[in-house]
Design goal:
Layout: E1 2-5, H1 12-17, E2 25-28, H2 35-45, E3 50-52, E4 59-60, H3 64-74, E5 78-89, E6 92-97, E7 121-123, H4 124-127, H5 142-150, E8 155-167, H6 173-176, H7 178-194, H8 197-237
Parallel strand pairs: 1-2, 5-8
Antiparallel strand pairs: 3-7, 4-8, 5-6, 5-7
Helix pairs in contact: 5-7
Length: 242
Protein backbone atom coordinates (compact mmCIF):
# COMPACT_ATOMS: atom_id res chain seq x y z
CA UNK A 1 0.00 0.00 0.00
CA UNK A 2 1.29 3.42 -0.99
CA UNK A 3 -0.10 6.42 0.91
CA UNK A 4 0.59 9.93 -0.40
CA UNK A 5 0.29 12.84 2.03
CA UNK A 6 -0.18 16.00 -0.02
CA UNK A 7 1.35 18.36 2.56
CA UNK A 8 -1.50 17.95 5.02
CA UNK A 9 -1.75 20.51 7.85
CA UNK A 10 -3.49 18.28 10.40
CA UNK A 11 -2.21 15.17 12.18
CA UNK A 12 -2.49 12.89 9.15
CA UNK A 13 1.23 12.49 8.49
CA UNK A 14 2.02 11.85 12.16
CA UNK A 15 -0.63 9.12 12.23
CA UNK A 16 0.77 7.58 9.03
CA UNK A 17 4.29 7.56 10.48
CA UNK A 18 3.05 5.59 13.48
CA UNK A 19 2.22 2.59 11.28
CA UNK A 20 4.87 -0.12 11.48
CA UNK A 21 3.47 -2.51 8.87
CA UNK A 22 6.26 -2.91 6.26
CA UNK A 23 3.64 -3.28 3.50
CA UNK A 24 2.69 0.39 3.94
CA UNK A 25 4.85 2.98 2.19
CA UNK A 26 4.22 6.61 3.15
CA UNK A 27 5.20 9.45 0.82
CA UNK A 28 4.87 13.14 1.60
CA UNK A 29 4.84 16.20 -0.66
CA UNK A 30 6.70 19.25 0.66
CA UNK A 31 3.90 21.45 -0.69
CA UNK A 32 0.30 20.88 -1.69
CA UNK A 33 0.27 19.83 -5.35
CA UNK A 34 -3.26 18.56 -5.89
CA UNK A 35 -4.85 15.20 -6.59
CA UNK A 36 -3.29 14.56 -10.01
CA UNK A 37 0.25 15.03 -8.71
CA UNK A 38 -0.48 12.88 -5.68
CA UNK A 39 -1.74 10.05 -7.87
CA UNK A 40 1.29 10.36 -10.16
CA UNK A 41 3.62 10.16 -7.17
CA UNK A 42 1.95 6.92 -6.07
CA UNK A 43 2.13 5.44 -9.59
CA UNK A 44 5.85 6.25 -9.95
CA UNK A 45 6.63 4.39 -6.72
CA UNK A 46 4.31 1.44 -7.39
CA UNK A 47 5.85 -1.86 -8.46
CA UNK A 48 2.78 -4.06 -8.81
CA UNK A 49 1.19 -5.52 -11.91
CA UNK A 50 -2.12 -3.81 -11.09
CA UNK A 51 -2.90 -0.47 -9.47
CA UNK A 52 -6.05 0.28 -7.44
CA UNK A 53 -6.77 3.82 -6.34
CA UNK A 54 -8.50 4.49 -3.00
CA UNK A 55 -9.59 7.71 -1.31
CA UNK A 56 -9.07 8.17 2.40
CA UNK A 57 -12.80 8.58 3.11
CA UNK A 58 -14.15 5.65 1.04
CA UNK A 59 -14.47 1.96 1.91
CA UNK A 60 -13.78 -0.92 -0.46
CA UNK A 61 -15.69 -4.17 -0.21
CA UNK A 62 -13.55 -6.90 1.44
CA UNK A 63 -13.17 -8.98 -1.74
CA UNK A 64 -12.80 -6.07 -4.14
CA UNK A 65 -9.09 -6.43 -4.93
CA UNK A 66 -9.15 -10.21 -5.27
CA UNK A 67 -12.18 -10.14 -7.57
CA UNK A 68 -10.80 -7.37 -9.77
CA UNK A 69 -7.42 -9.10 -10.10
CA UNK A 70 -9.20 -12.34 -11.05
CA UNK A 71 -11.18 -10.49 -13.73
CA UNK A 72 -8.11 -8.83 -15.22
CA UNK A 73 -6.20 -12.11 -15.18
CA UNK A 74 -8.97 -13.76 -17.18
CA UNK A 75 -9.45 -10.75 -19.53
CA UNK A 76 -5.94 -9.85 -20.75
CA UNK A 77 -7.26 -7.30 -23.26
CA UNK A 78 -8.84 -5.21 -20.50
CA UNK A 79 -6.46 -2.65 -19.05
CA UNK A 80 -8.93 -0.64 -16.95
CA UNK A 81 -11.64 -2.20 -14.79
CA UNK A 82 -14.30 -0.33 -12.86
CA UNK A 83 -17.37 -1.26 -10.87
CA UNK A 84 -20.35 0.25 -9.08
CA UNK A 85 -20.57 2.39 -5.94
CA UNK A 86 -23.01 2.74 -3.08
CA UNK A 87 -23.48 6.13 -1.44
CA UNK A 88 -22.60 6.37 2.23
CA UNK A 89 -23.88 9.42 4.13
CA UNK A 90 -22.95 9.78 7.78
CA UNK A 91 -21.93 6.14 7.93
CA UNK A 92 -25.27 4.93 6.57
CA UNK A 93 -25.45 3.13 3.22
CA UNK A 94 -27.72 4.70 0.63
CA UNK A 95 -28.61 3.98 -2.98
CA UNK A 96 -26.15 2.51 -5.45
CA UNK A 97 -24.74 4.68 -8.22
CA UNK A 98 -24.52 2.84 -11.53
CA UNK A 99 -22.25 3.17 -14.56
CA UNK A 100 -22.67 1.30 -17.89
CA UNK A 101 -21.93 -2.40 -17.40
CA UNK A 102 -19.86 -3.40 -20.42
CA UNK A 103 -16.58 -4.97 -21.51
CA UNK A 104 -16.11 -2.01 -23.88
CA UNK A 105 -16.75 1.18 -21.93
CA UNK A 106 -14.86 3.40 -24.39
CA UNK A 107 -17.98 3.72 -26.56
CA UNK A 108 -19.71 5.54 -23.69
CA UNK A 109 -16.94 8.08 -23.05
CA UNK A 110 -18.27 10.72 -25.45
CA UNK A 111 -21.44 10.83 -23.38
CA UNK A 112 -19.47 11.49 -20.18
CA UNK A 113 -17.24 9.82 -17.62
CA UNK A 114 -18.23 6.15 -17.75
CA UNK A 115 -16.05 4.86 -14.91
CA UNK A 116 -16.16 5.65 -11.20
CA UNK A 117 -12.64 6.67 -10.26
CA UNK A 118 -12.65 5.16 -6.72
CA UNK A 119 -13.65 1.74 -8.12
CA UNK A 120 -10.98 1.41 -10.79
CA UNK A 121 -8.11 -1.06 -11.05
CA UNK A 122 -5.57 -0.42 -13.84
CA UNK A 123 -3.09 -2.71 -15.52
CA UNK A 124 0.35 -1.12 -15.06
CA UNK A 125 1.53 -2.14 -18.54
CA UNK A 126 -1.36 -0.16 -20.06
CA UNK A 127 -0.38 2.97 -18.12
CA UNK A 128 3.20 2.63 -19.29
CA UNK A 129 2.04 2.95 -22.91
CA UNK A 130 1.04 6.57 -22.27
CA UNK A 131 3.38 9.57 -22.44
CA UNK A 132 2.14 10.69 -19.01
CA UNK A 133 -0.27 9.52 -16.33
CA UNK A 134 -2.72 11.96 -14.68
CA UNK A 135 -2.53 15.44 -16.21
CA UNK A 136 -1.79 18.03 -13.45
CA UNK A 137 -3.51 20.71 -15.54
CA UNK A 138 -6.82 19.12 -14.62
CA UNK A 139 -7.52 19.69 -10.95
CA UNK A 140 -10.89 18.06 -11.61
CA UNK A 141 -11.94 15.42 -14.16
CA UNK A 142 -8.35 14.14 -14.32
CA UNK A 143 -9.68 10.60 -14.29
CA UNK A 144 -11.92 11.27 -17.30
CA UNK A 145 -8.91 12.55 -19.24
CA UNK A 146 -6.93 9.43 -18.32
CA UNK A 147 -9.71 7.05 -19.45
CA UNK A 148 -10.00 8.85 -22.79
CA UNK A 149 -6.28 8.45 -23.41
CA UNK A 150 -6.17 4.86 -22.16
CA UNK A 151 -9.04 4.01 -24.54
CA UNK A 152 -6.52 4.42 -27.35
CA UNK A 153 -4.21 1.70 -26.02
CA UNK A 154 -6.40 -0.79 -24.14
CA UNK A 155 -9.91 -2.00 -23.43
CA UNK A 156 -11.99 -0.48 -20.61
CA UNK A 157 -14.65 -2.44 -18.72
CA UNK A 158 -17.19 -2.12 -15.91
CA UNK A 159 -18.71 -4.92 -13.87
CA UNK A 160 -22.09 -4.81 -12.14
CA UNK A 161 -20.59 -5.45 -8.70
CA UNK A 162 -20.71 -2.76 -6.01
CA UNK A 163 -17.07 -2.55 -4.94
CA UNK A 164 -16.85 0.75 -3.04
CA UNK A 165 -18.84 2.57 -0.38
CA UNK A 166 -18.58 6.20 -1.46
CA UNK A 167 -18.67 8.69 1.41
CA UNK A 168 -20.61 11.85 0.52
CA UNK A 169 -19.83 15.14 2.27
CA UNK A 170 -19.79 18.83 1.39
CA UNK A 171 -15.98 19.17 1.33
CA UNK A 172 -15.52 16.77 -1.60
CA UNK A 173 -13.82 18.09 -4.73
CA UNK A 174 -16.80 16.95 -6.82
CA UNK A 175 -19.22 18.91 -4.64
CA UNK A 176 -17.07 22.06 -4.36
CA UNK A 177 -15.96 22.53 -7.97
CA UNK A 178 -18.83 21.35 -10.17
CA UNK A 179 -18.55 24.19 -12.72
CA UNK A 180 -14.81 23.75 -13.16
CA UNK A 181 -15.29 20.00 -13.50
CA UNK A 182 -17.89 20.49 -16.26
CA UNK A 183 -15.57 22.88 -18.11
CA UNK A 184 -12.68 20.42 -17.97
CA UNK A 185 -14.98 17.57 -19.04
CA UNK A 186 -16.06 19.47 -22.16
CA UNK A 187 -12.43 20.15 -23.07
CA UNK A 188 -11.56 16.48 -22.60
CA UNK A 189 -14.53 15.37 -24.71
CA UNK A 190 -13.39 17.65 -27.54
CA UNK A 191 -9.87 16.18 -27.47
CA UNK A 192 -11.21 12.64 -27.34
CA UNK A 193 -13.46 13.34 -30.30
CA UNK A 194 -10.73 14.61 -32.62
CA UNK A 195 -8.13 12.05 -31.60
CA UNK A 196 -10.09 9.15 -33.05
CA UNK A 197 -11.81 8.80 -36.42
CA UNK A 198 -13.97 6.05 -34.90
CA UNK A 199 -15.33 8.45 -32.34
CA UNK A 200 -15.74 11.22 -34.92
CA UNK A 201 -18.08 8.89 -36.81
CA UNK A 202 -19.88 8.15 -33.57
CA UNK A 203 -20.16 11.86 -32.77
CA UNK A 204 -21.61 12.60 -36.22
CA UNK A 205 -24.22 9.86 -35.73
CA UNK A 206 -25.04 11.32 -32.31
CA UNK A 207 -25.37 14.77 -33.89
CA UNK A 208 -27.84 13.49 -36.49
CA UNK A 209 -29.80 11.71 -33.78
CA UNK A 210 -29.93 14.97 -31.85
CA UNK A 211 -31.10 16.90 -34.92
CA UNK A 212 -33.78 14.29 -35.65
CA UNK A 213 -34.94 14.50 -32.04
CA UNK A 214 -34.96 18.30 -32.24
CA UNK A 215 -36.92 18.15 -35.53
CA UNK A 216 -39.52 15.91 -33.91
CA UNK A 217 -39.92 18.34 -31.03
CA UNK A 218 -40.19 21.27 -33.46
CA UNK A 219 -42.80 19.42 -35.56
CA UNK A 220 -44.83 18.59 -32.47
CA UNK A 221 -44.65 22.23 -31.35
CA UNK A 222 -45.71 23.45 -34.82
CA UNK A 223 -48.67 21.04 -34.96
CA UNK A 224 -49.71 22.06 -31.49
CA UNK A 225 -49.64 25.73 -32.51
CA UNK A 226 -51.54 25.03 -35.71
CA UNK A 227 -54.17 23.07 -33.79
CA UNK A 228 -54.55 26.02 -31.46
CA UNK A 229 -55.17 28.32 -34.44
CA UNK A 230 -57.86 25.98 -35.79
CA UNK A 231 -59.48 25.86 -32.37
CA UNK A 232 -59.52 29.65 -32.29
CA UNK A 233 -61.10 29.89 -35.73
CA UNK A 234 -63.65 27.20 -34.89
CA UNK A 235 -64.62 28.93 -31.66
CA UNK A 236 -64.98 32.27 -33.45
CA UNK A 237 -67.13 31.02 -36.35
CA UNK A 238 -69.24 28.56 -34.40
CA UNK A 239 -71.28 30.10 -31.55
CA UNK A 240 -72.23 26.59 -30.38
CA UNK A 241 -68.57 25.94 -29.51
CA UNK A 242 -68.74 28.11 -26.37
Amino acid sequence: MIVVDDASTDQSFRILESFTDPRIKVLRHSSNQGLSSGLNTAIKHAKGKYLARHDSDDRSEPNRLAEQVAYLESHPRVGVLGGQMAFCIGGLEGESLMTPVSDDVSRFLLQGNALFHPTVMIRRSSLDELSHFYDPRYRNAQDYDLWCRLAGVTQLANTSDVVVMYEVHERQQTMMHRNRQRRFALEIQAKFLWNSSLHRDFAVSQLFRGLISLSRHFLAWALYGLLGQFRGIFAKDNPCAE
